[in-house]
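Quick start: read one record
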Amino acid sequence: MLFKTTGIVFRLTKYGETSIIVSIFTSEFGLQSYIVNGARSKSGKGRIALYQPLTLLDLVVYHKETGGIMRIKEIKCLHPYQHINTDVNKTTIALFIEELVNKSIKEEAHSEVLCDFLIRALMHLDGMPKPGNFHLIFMVKLSRHLGFQPQTAAEVLGGRVMDYDEESVLTQVINAGYDTEIPITNVQRRNVLDALVRFYSMHVEGFGMMKSVEVLREIFS
C-alpha cells in the first residue's frame, strides 16, 4: 500500500553498481530501509542529493507490515538547508547529530512525535545565529524522547565529580531551550559534552564511542 509520510535520512549504503539502500526515520513507520535503483548512475546524479544524511523529506512510500526493504514512489525535500551545509559550526554539529541518532534511535522506536521533534530541531539549527550550545541542549531534549531524561546534573554525572561551575552549566543545559543564553567557556562546553556522552552510553545499549566528538572539540576550542 502507498502512504504519505515525512522523514529524515539517517544513512545510506551503496548497493550493487548504481543503487543505494537508504535508512529513513519516518513519522508514519519509524526507521525503515528503502532501495533506490539507479541513484548512483549518471541519470540519477540529481536525485542522490535527496538521500544525504539528515535531509528532511516529504515522501510517498510503499509499505507492507511483513517488513523488509521497501521502495519509494515519490520524494521531495521538505526543507532545503540554508546554512547547515555551508557554516562550519553547523555542519560539525549536524555530523554529531547524525552519529548520535544513528546510535540512539533503534528500529522499534517509531514515533510521529519523535520524527516531528527531529525535523523541528534541524530546522532550528539551520536558522539560529549562534549554535555553539545546540548539540548539548539537543542531547538533553532527545533523551526525553528516548525515555531517560535527566532532571538534575547528578543524574547525568552518575556519581562522578564535576567542577562546581561546570555542574552549574550542566544544570542550565538540562533546563535550557535552544535559544537560551548560557555563559560557557570552551573547556566547560567540552566537559559537559563528555558528561552527556557518558550519560548516553549508560542508557543506550551498544552506544560505543562517538567519533564526531573529536571534531566538535576542535571546532569549539
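The chain has a mean pLDDT of 93.
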